Amino acid sequence: MNSLEKISLKIPYEKVGLNPKNFHPELETVTLKFSPEIGIRKRPAVIICPGGGYEYLSDRETLPVAMRFASHGINAFILRYSINSPFPAALLELAYAVKYVRENAEKYDIDPDKILLCGFSAGGHLTASLGTLWNSEYLQSIIGSTEMFKPNGMILCYPVITSGKYTHSGSMKCLLGDDPDPELFEKMSLEKQVTENAPHAFIWHTSEDGLVPLENSLYIAEALHEKGIDVEMHIYPKGHHGLSLCDGTVSKKEDISDAVKYCSDWV
Question: What are the start-end ranges of the E strands in 139-180?
Answer without folding.
Answer: 153-157
